Amino acid sequence: MPELPEVETVRRGIAPHLVGEKIDRMIIRQRQLRWPISRTLPGAVANQCVHTVGRRAKYLLIELDDGHLIWHLGMSGSLRILQNLPTPGTHDHVDVCLKRGATLRFRDPRRFGSLHWTCVDPLRHRLLKNLGPEPLGEEFSGEWLYARSRGRSGAVKNFLMDSKIVVGLGNIYASEALFEAGISPVRAAGRIGLDRYRRLAEVAKTILGQAIKAGGTTLRDFTKAEGEPGYFAQELQVYGRAGEACSRCGEPVRSRIIGQRSSFYCPQCQN
DNA sequence: AATCGCGCCTGACGGC
DNA sequence: TGCCGTCAGGCGCGAT
Questions:
Q1: What is the CATH number of the domain that holds A163?
Q2: Roughly how many angstroms between the first and final C-alpha of chain A, as a whole number?
Q3: Within 10 Å of residue A15's Cβ, how many Cβ atoms?
């Protein structure tokens, strides 16, 4: 389940192998992802050079001569750079073959990922145009959260995971940030003060920054571009730790479903 | 405008 | 051993 740090790790892993390279061809074995891949995509990208590999939220933006690939890994997607091309497995849906021989291979067992092509500003694409600020950017702050949360009665965890409020805070990091900030995940977003939101924004930035530095969380399907796992899973304080002692007070960590998502928190430390 | 629930899909896991 | 039901999970979307 790639979250933002994982996607950023993938971006950094594949970028050096792609930038400046020319695409020979694209092979699509399975079009039916979250949205069907356009039939015209392979023809559109052939013989184009890669200029940059960027990211907006969890979307990777691969800039070519005449447009951008907008690539989402869903929850089980991976992108690998391969020099010697093994026979594709059942879930290896897309290959981007470069002229000089390397291949970018997309594997996605659950097919929640997506791949789009756009010839205009990718930030204007329907999937990107309404996204909130990047969590590591300056626009994202306690003040921002406070202002946007006034009058909202829903649980703060759902508020944090709303991509119009801030992107890249998925289920894992939302739980972790709320634990660090000492805020109950079910507290109404509109009933949290500025000081607590400042703390929340601060810890969110710290946690995401540390996770990126560590190379992303390792859970189930995730591995970095080169294949080795990230090393952040051991740093998670509450996620996936129901029943274990809270690292701060020793009370058992609890889990419950909030907004159809499993959530983890310490009933003693978070209120 | 905010909020809620759905559905896409497969692998892992538990129960029998 | 094998089969089956259940669940997780990102996130856009339609309904309320």
A1: 1.10.8.50
A2: 28
A3: 17
The predicted pLDDT at position A218 comes to: 45
A74 touches strand C (CB under 7 A): yes
Specify if A130 maps to a domain.
Answer: no
Same domain, A227 and A201: yes
As for how many domains chain A has, the answer is: 2
For residues A10 and A114, membership in a common domain is answered with yes
Got the DSSP string for A55-71? EETTEEEEEETTEEEEE
A131 in a structural domain = no
A167 and A116 part of one domain: no
A161's tokens: 């995971």
Closest among A265, A223, A218 to A244, alpha carbons compared: A265
Q: Which of residues 95-114 of A touch strand B (CB under 7 A)?
A: 109-112
Domain range for A78 is: 4-124
Quick check: A127 and A70 in contact, CB under 8 A? yes
Q: Which nucleotide is nearest to A190 (CA to C1')?
A: B2
Is strand B in 7 Å reach of the CB of A31? no
Domain stop point among A124, A158, A175: A124
Residue A1 confidence class, pLDDT cut points 50, 70, 90: low
Indicate yes or no: pTM above 0.85.
yes
CATH code at position A116: 3.20.190.10
Give the residue nearest to nucleotide C9 (CA to C1').
Answer: A75
Task: Please write the tens of the pLDDT for every residue from A128-162.
Answer: 999 999 999 999 999 999 999 999 999 999 999 99
Same domain? For A148 and A256 the reply is yes
Nucleotides in chain B near protein beta carbons (<7 Å)? 2-12
Quote the CA–CA distance of A161 and A106 in Å, as a whole number.
26
Active site residues of A: 2-3, 58, 261
